[in-house]
Design brief:
By secondary structure, the chain is mainly alpha-helical. Helices cover 58% and strands 0% of the residues. Helix 1 packs across helix 2 (29-56). This is Ribbon-helix-helix protein, CopG family.
């Protein structure tokens, strides 16, 4: 898989919060941000798959949803 570079301009207070969260997990701030983006992307794709399954089985009004860490 090819890698690309993403440059962000982040407020100093936000950067400090990100750095603290990353340090608690023993990670660099860059790794923490990348893993957060990957996790959010997975959650979004997972939820889309659940909704597609509900439509396939005709459960458009299903009340229960798998949580799997999805907010």
């Amino acid at each position: 898989m090819a890698s690309r570079v993403l440059s962000l301009r982040i407020d100093a207070d936000l950067w400090d919060r990100i750095s603290r969260h990353a340090a608690k997990r023993g990670m660099s701030a860059q790794d923490y941000v990348a893993r957060t983006l990957i996790r959010d992307d997975f959650d979004e794709r997972f939820m889309a798959a659940v909704e597609e399954t509900d439509r396939f089985y005709g459960r458009e009004d299903a009340q229960t949803r798998p949580s799997a860490g999805i907010r």
